[in-house]
Design goal:
It is a single chain. The protein has helices at 18-29, 41-53, 68-82, 105-133, 155-175, 193-204, 212-216, 227-238, and strands at residues 9-13, 33-38, 57-62, 87-90, 137-142, 180-187, 249-252. The protein has a seven-stranded parallel sheet, with helices on both faces. The longest helix has 29 residues, at 105-133. By secondary structure, the protein is an alpha/beta fold. The chain is 46% helix and 15% strand. The protein has one domain: Rossmann fold. The relative contact order is 0.14.
Length: 259
Amino acid sequence: MGSKMHGRTVVVTGGGSGIGRGISKGLAAEGANVVIADLDLSAAEGVATEITAAGGQALAVKMDVTNRAEVQAGIAAGVAKYGRLDCYFNNAGFNKPMKFLDVTEQNFEAIMRVNALAVLVGTQEAAKQYIRQGTGGKVVNTASIAGRTGFASFTPYSASKAAVISITQGAARSLAEHKITVNAFSPGVVDTPLWVTLDKDLEEIGEGDSGFDSMAAGILIGRPAAPEDIVPTALFLASSDSDYITGQTMAIDGGMILV
């Protein structure tokens, strides 16, 4: 076990699978107390079991990130068990591809609610906890390359992730006086269960040629990311190493989007 995060308590939303699972396990391996928050409690409990079996500290909580009361309860559960909160990862998100001309209000609003509004709510509630503690703290948001460039069948998703970048910047400006930093990272194509579903969805709308393999072909490093590729940056943003960084979105995309 490492020690970079020893004694620090971290909440990871969407921690039951994919990138969130990778972050949860990676931070636990560095000594963090990890609160794995997920809509799927059994998935969160599975990751918590993996962590504790490896000698780490973990707590699973059921959380709908769009429900402020559940966000508050998840934070409170972590604080009750571990004494304080140090870092909050707004990682939960989803996508439901649709052709641009077919996008419905329901599709747009559902994606924006989970991917953007929930980031606002999570950041607010984590910040309130830091202010109560009088300790400062960190918020780390999962953006995306889709927040830097729009994709035809992912337009609401792209809009939601652009919103994450803007919320990160606005929160960083607002919360600096409380010694709270707010940063984000933007993954590219990451090999997770989410992409299996996305590829099926794209096939259904006749956009199968714009899926995982097609997007991965444009990666300069020559391969898609694994969740483990995200962990070092997540660890950096969660630890004291990044204390002088705020309002930034760091790309972890193998060279897909160059700005």
